[in-house]
Amino acid sequence: MKIGDKNIGEGFPVYIIAEIGLNHNGDLETAKKLIDVACDAGVDAVKFQKRTPELVVPKHQRDVKRDTPWGRMTYMDYRYKVEFNYEQYSEIDRYCKIKKIQWFASPWDKDSVDFLESFDPLCFKVPSACATDIELIEHIVSKSRPVILSTGMCSQEQIDNAFNALNDSEFALLHCTSTYPLIPDEVNLSMINTLKNKYDCIVGYSGHEAGLQISYAAAAMGAKIIERHITLDRTMWGSDQAASLEPWGLTKLVRDVRIIEKSIGDGVKKVYESELPIIEKLRIK
Length: 285
Fold this sequence. Notes:
Elements: E1 2-3, E2 6-7, E3 15-21, H1 28-41, E4 45-50, H2 53-56, H3 59-62, E5 65-68, E6 71-74, H4 75-81, H5 86-99, E7 102-107, H6 110-117, E8 124-126, H7 134-141, E9 147-150, H8 156-166, E10 171-176, H9 191-199, E11 202-207, H10 213-220, E12 225-229, H11 247-264, H12 276-282
Parallel strand pairs: 3-4, 3-12, 4-7, 8-9, 9-10, 10-11, 11-12
Antiparallel strand pairs: 1-2, 5-6
Helix pairs in contact: 1-5, 1-11, 7-8, 10-11
């Protein structure tokens, strides 16, 4: 699988995605700061989310009032408040090109797919919440671009259905559990091997846990894509902030995953040249 100039799969570095999502809270300057954080850490891509609120917000939730940093408003008004428009995405596109970092987004509806298509995206990401929307997946596949799909909240049968819808495309599956923050007992990293063996495709991990240990383990178990939410500060307002990595955490993630992938090797036992002096010094026979 290839996204832009990045090869993904066996023999290539883990593809690391910094999920900005909606952690920008509708502020373009915050989004740019998060892009800067991702660039400084050395990730491969940043990812956003795109919705058409009137298509994806359930009717029974539209008029529900909630407290926000901008005052008390309906959930529908809030959804519009945090959505970037064409001009704002144009600026994100321009800024990412200047910073030389890949960007793409998760469309939650067909109109959002078409909106993002106007930016000639390198790929599309299907979020876990949309993994059962076969019509949406088929619409994404029709654009003939690489696809990454997260499997949170999915049964095995639902993953089968998504796989069948994706099968005409270049795609990867991400193991995921959609709780925020995710507790270790519900991570089930063994699913990385299950997905790899069952579907014979590129498999990665999308994590919502606090900390870095589980993402390290995912890399050691062969995840070829790792996605983590990022934030400037976990105490910022927003439902995803607490399960996100702050700048120092993202930097550590990239640094340590690069060390882990170098350490995995090829599974063929050999005597390294660096061991020869030790053999001379310590081995009796």
